[in-house]
């Protein structure tokens, strides 16, 4: 039976597929899915748009935490990082603007939305993190003050 499916399709796989399909249907949607039941919330899926916006390939992203610490930089606000941590640890929905950095260290303003996803038993099993690039709406980051590493 080459090429065919063997056995039953696991319910969690169809659950994941439904979330991915719905999230991919959103315009300009870049997102991550992370396991909410494992320490450090490892990324279990990232779409191609996230890879494009971040500059990382899928293999690199899939080895990371959805906390996105790999994208923090010198101007990423500590308060925003604390809000990400709080939303994940307390399994709460939240949305905020955050300054992250691409793989090549280019700053990027993103609107980040953290959404817990519950299963049929009302347990949070996944986190959906969606990212929208809002860099064009923000003041330029490359001012004379930041070029020299000096902060105002």
Automatic annotation (TrEMBL):
<dbReference type="GO" id="GO:0008076">
    <property type="term" value="C:voltage-gated potassium channel complex"/>
</dbReference>
<dbReference type="GO" id="GO:0042391">
    <property type="term" value="P:regulation of membrane potential"/>
</dbReference>
<dbReference type="InterPro" id="IPR050818">
    <property type="entry name" value="KCNH_animal-type"/>
</dbReference>
<dbReference type="InterPro" id="IPR003949">
    <property type="entry name" value="K_chnl_volt-dep_EAG"/>
</dbReference>
<dbReference type="InterPro" id="IPR001610">
    <property type="entry name" value="PAC"/>
</dbReference>
<protein>
    <recommendedName>
        <fullName>PAC domain-containing protein</fullName>
    </recommendedName>
</protein>
<dbReference type="GO" id="GO:0005249">
    <property type="term" value="F:voltage-gated potassium channel activity"/>
</dbReference>
<dbReference type="Pfam" id="PF13426">
    <property type="entry name" value="PAS_9"/>
</dbReference>
<keyword id="KW-0112">Calmodulin-binding</keyword>
<dbReference type="GO" id="GO:0005516">
    <property type="term" value="F:calmodulin binding"/>
</dbReference>
<dbReference type="InterPro" id="IPR000700">
    <property type="entry name" value="PAS-assoc_C"/>
</dbReference>
<dbReference type="InterPro" id="IPR000014">
    <property type="entry name" value="PAS"/>
</dbReference>
<dbReference type="InterPro" id="IPR035965">
    <property type="entry name" value="PAS-like_dom_sf"/>
</dbReference>
